[in-house]
Specification:
- It is built from five helices and no strands.
- α3 runs antiparallel to α4 and α4 packs antiparallel against α5.
- The protein has 119 residues and is mainly α.
- The N and C termini lie far apart (60 Å).
- The protein has a domain of 79 residues.
- 76% of the residues lie in helices and 0% in strands.
C-alpha cells in the first residue's frame, strides 16, 4: 500500500519486489476522469443558469457564452478520454476541434465584457 502512494519505493526495491497495482490505478484514474467530467458539467450548467437569471445585459450574456464554451471544451475532454463514442476517423481531430471552438466562444464572452467596461 505504501508503494501505491510513493512509487519510488517500488523502483528502489529492485526485481525482488513485484507489485501490480495496475487495476487499482486504472480504477482510480477512471473515477478521477468521471468526477472531473461531472464537476465540469455541473459548473458549466450553473454558469449558464446564473447568466439567464441576470436577465440579459452584458454580464448575463457573457456568462451564457462562457458556460456554452465550457460545455464544448468539456465535450472535447470527454471525446478524448472515451474514444469509443466517436467514429474512428474523427478520434484524433474532434477533441482539438471542440476545444478550439469552446475557447473561441469563451474569448467572445471575454471580449463582450471588455467592450462593456471600456470607458
Amino acid at each position: 500500500m505504501f508503494s501505491l502512494f510513493f512509487p519510488g519505493v517500488l523502483f528502489a526495491a529492485g526485481d525482488s519486489f513485484t507489485a501490480d497495482y495496475s487495476d487499482t490505478v486504472l480504477i482510480l484514474t477512471f473515477y478521477s476522469v468521471i468526477s472531473a467530467v461531472a464537476l465540469g458539467a455541473v459548473t458549466s450548467i450553473i454558469i449558464i443558469i446564473n447568466g439567464r437569471r441576470m436577465r440579459g445585459g452584458v454580464f448575463g450574456g457573457a456568462l451564457k457564452y462562457l458556460g456554452v464554451g465550457m460545455l464544448i471544451v468539456l465535450a472535447g475532454t470527454v471525446v478524448s478520454f472515451f474514444p469509443m463514442i466517436t467514429p474512428q476517423y474523427l478520434q484524433g481531430a474532434l477533441p482539438s476541434i471542440l476545444n478550439t471552438i469552446g475557447y473561441i466562444i469563451m474569448a467572445f464572452a471575454a471580449n463582450n465584457i471588455l467592450k462593456a467596461t471600456r470607458v
